[in-house]
Amino acid sequence: xxxxxxxxxxxxxxxxxxxxxxxxxxxxxxxxxxxxxxxxxxxxxxxxxxxxxxxxxxxxxxxxxxxxxxxxxxxxxxxxxxxxxxxxxxxxxxxxxxxxxxxxxxxxxxxxxxxxxxxxxxxxxxxxxxxxxxxxxxxxxxxxxxxxxxxxxxxxxxxxxxxxxxxxxxxxxxxxxxxxxxxxxxxxxxxxxxxxxxxxxxxxxxxxxxxxxxxxxxxxxxxxxxxxxxxxxxxxxxxxxxxxxxxxxxxxxxxxxxxxxxxxxxxxxxxxxxxxxxxxxxxxxxxxxxxxxxxxxxxxxxxxxxxxxxxxxxxxxxxxxxxxxxxxxxxxxxxxxxxxxxxxxxxxxxxxxxxxxxxxxxxxxxxxxxxxxxxxxxxxxxxxxxxxxxxxxxxxxxxxxxxxxxxxxxxxxxxxxxxxxxxxxxxxxxxxxxxxxxxxxxxxxxxxxxxxxxxxxxxxxxxxxxxxxxxxxxxxxxxxxxxxxxxxxxxxxxxxxxxxxxxxxxxxxxxxxxxxxxxxxxxxxxxxxxxxxxxxxxxxxxxxxxxxxxxxxxxxxxxxxxxxxxxxxxxxxxxxxxxxxxxxxxxxxxxxxxxxxxxxxxxxxxxxxxxxxxxxxxxxxxxxxxxxxxxxxxxxxxxxxxxxxxxxxxxxxxxxxxxxxxxxxxxxxxxxxxxxxxxxxxxxxxx
Length: 687
Hints:
- It is an enzyme of class 1 (oxidoreductase).
- The protein is α+β, with helices and mostly antiparallel strands.
- The protein folds into three domains: 48-387, Catalase core domain (Catalase HpII,  Chain A, domain 1); 460-531, Hemocyanin, N-terminal domain (Up-down Bundle); 539-678, Rossmann fold (3-Layer(aba) Sandwich), CATH 3.40.50.880.
- The chain has helices at 16-22, 61-71, 167-174, 190-198, 203-209, 257-266, 270-280, 335-340, 359-375, 457-465, 468-483, 488-498, 503-513, 556-568, 618-633, 642-649, 665-678; strands spanning 48-50, 84-93, 112-121, 136-144, 147-154, 224-225, 230-233, 239-248, 286-295, 321-331, 353-354, 444-446, 545-550, 572-577, 581-584, 590-593, 595-596, 607-612, 638-640, 659-661.
- The strands form four sheets. Strands 2, 3, 4, 5, 6, 7, 8, 9, 10 and 11 form a ten-stranded antiparallel sheet that branches.
- The termini are far apart.
- Residues 1-17 have low confidence and may be disordered.
């Protein structure tokens, strides 16, 4: 039988396949938790640490088994962050950080460091859509002269959990449910919200996930956050705690939910296409690198634990210091070779950058290498071209799957005399990495520090910081997501939980989803952080896409003048008409058409400019009208001149905020560009 296990049972109906599988079916409900070896475990919430706030210990066999099994669950697609896109670029330093770190690429303002950045969604498979409601990955590989440094970040500054041992749990909960593999790339289902209700440390992250941050306008218009607390260590051995930020030069902007859903069908590649096309056009995305810095002596002066990955450091309390800029200026040559094979790891650091005892970070330091071993086929994934450092590497590692290095000589061990005891370690003064010598003592325990047990204060801080439109969107997001949940018990648990964040928020959600509104709860937290609201970001017209609706018989000279004015302001107009080819104005001016109404949609643009023309086609008028109204309903700027102006002026749309009706060319361009910069007009009355 060659070791195959075949059931001898057989149903009377002859369904032998069912019988064959019966012995492998397991119902875990009501059972005690065990390891894969059958050992019953007394704890599954916390990894084994040296003291409540100490580092995770290697002897934690349960942690290793759980994470190892999780890391190897998918072949070859990434378990999380499977849907991604990337680009090459460079990083330049504004100001030397020598007082804080000895990392060379953060000391020398004259050098530019090559980078490779991969943006991604977390939950969906490789074939899922770009614009789903989800966290976005923002991983940067710096190819420094001292080795590769990976800043593995997200577009949300906090995370669902506090301890790495729970990472398999949150991913299992948010992924499609295993009995039917649905829904794809969505948290709007029972298991995710059951996890939230029963793991209340996720409250803060869930507020961010329900906010506009989870549906960014583009990769180019979202922030990146290192999430964890790291250490910078200078040449004197003095350390500072740091959190790391990427700030987009175009500001932080989002889609609206209805728009995001439509885009998923119209163009599931919307974000990757946007990144690719803008780099090809020379509209290079730029992000400034910022750091928040806390002196070691101030570690315990805040009303939150700075090592807790479910907490931010409010920028009003710990300002972000802008120290450099990253520019993405080259697209990949081959998506598989570069985007799919790139391997990031928060443990890839350079001298002057070190870790803290954040238990989520400690878990990631184990998990990432383990994941690459199975996904990329063995221990030599560092030799894949996209992962190779720009500096030489020398050690006694040999052989293994996919080895490319041809090591010469007979010595492959340390210590030795045949090769003069080389390759050999070097001192810190010679550039050698040495871990920060933090004093650690404590009993071996599976526990959470008391300082990690406040799960709601910063979730309330986030809610307090939102503008009225942002709050409305959060309520709608909760109502949509929980409206998809089948379990009445889970819905009630979630509403009762978020009453601790804001009682009125919970009551409105309860009404929308048909459960009992909580009678008590609320929060005494009144503090807000203006930096958290997207109302306080940069507003620029640069690279915004404008749909120009036009047909034969337009005023050619005026339209060309307006199009040139828009382009000179950084706006990207694209022509939409009845058919492809060229269309002619009444003065003989010809314009090339980019799209028809069949090949594009209003959700793929940031604004609409209506020119119209002399067409009497009822089909054109209907298609154009639907196009404009959809953009209007998504609060986008709309402009019109000449025939188009008269068309909108007779409609209620023409009297609304953000609708520019103007025949004077210069006035129109100035007003319309300002409206495009505003991005959305939330005070518009949309039916």
